[in-house]
Amino acid sequence: MKVKAVLGVALFALGMSTTFAQEMSNEEIVERIKPYGSLHVAGAAAADAGASAARSGEDVYNSACVACHGSGVLGAPRLHNGADWQPRLDEKGLDGVWQNALSGINAMPPRGTCSNCSDDEIKAAIEYMIEGI
User: Fold this and answer.
1) What average pLDDT does range 39-65 have in this prediction?
2) Which residues pair with 105 in a beta bridge?
3) Which burial class, exposed, middle or buried, applies to 103 when counting CB atoms under 10 A from its CB (0-12, 13-18, 19+)?
4) What residues have CB less than 8 Å from 60, skipping those under 6 apart?
5) So what's the pLDDT on residue 53?
6) Cβ within 8 Å of residue 102, ≥6 positions away
7) Proportion of the chain above pLDDT 70, given as a percent
8) Contact 33, 79 (CB under 8 A)
């Protein structure tokens, strides 16, 4: 008996919601479901940016890498700091360091915080960070 009562209430609620939806015009429905706002993620390219030229290593560093590589957070090698970079380069070479940046290593997620960077932009950022060491 309880099952019939629950089913009856559910069918009544479904019927009421269908009736309400039928009373709304298309314009009212569009207005009701439109996005409330937008979200901008720091370091992410704007959706309307279109196809743009590759960013320089310095641009990528300043927008996505500086947060960790500027101060050495969780052991991240710091900008232009040979003592931080040289052991990594000696062990793995530039291509090995680059592959770590692409796939992630230790606390660094894949591509760091630049999920929209191309492989070449990631490599340019690394080359920028090791300049002069």
Assistant:
1) 78
2) 108
3) exposed
4) 114, 117, 121, 122, 124, 125, 128
5) 82
6) 110, 111, 119, 122
7) 84
8) no
Paired residues of 108 in beta bridges: 105
Per-residue pLDDT tens over the stretch 85-124: 999 999 999 999 999 999 999 999 999 999 999 999 999 9
In the three-class reduction of DSSP (H, G, I as helix; E, B as strand; rest coil), residue 108 is classed as strand
Whether the Cβ atoms of residue 94 and residue 126 lie closer than 8 Å to each other: yes
CB atoms within 10 A of CB 126: 24
Neighbours of 51 (CB within 10 A): 4
Whether residue 60 contacts residue 127, with contact meaning beta carbons closer than 8 Å, is answered with: no
Q: Which residue has the tokens 């530039």?
A: 94
**CB of 63 within 8 A of CB of 114?**
yes
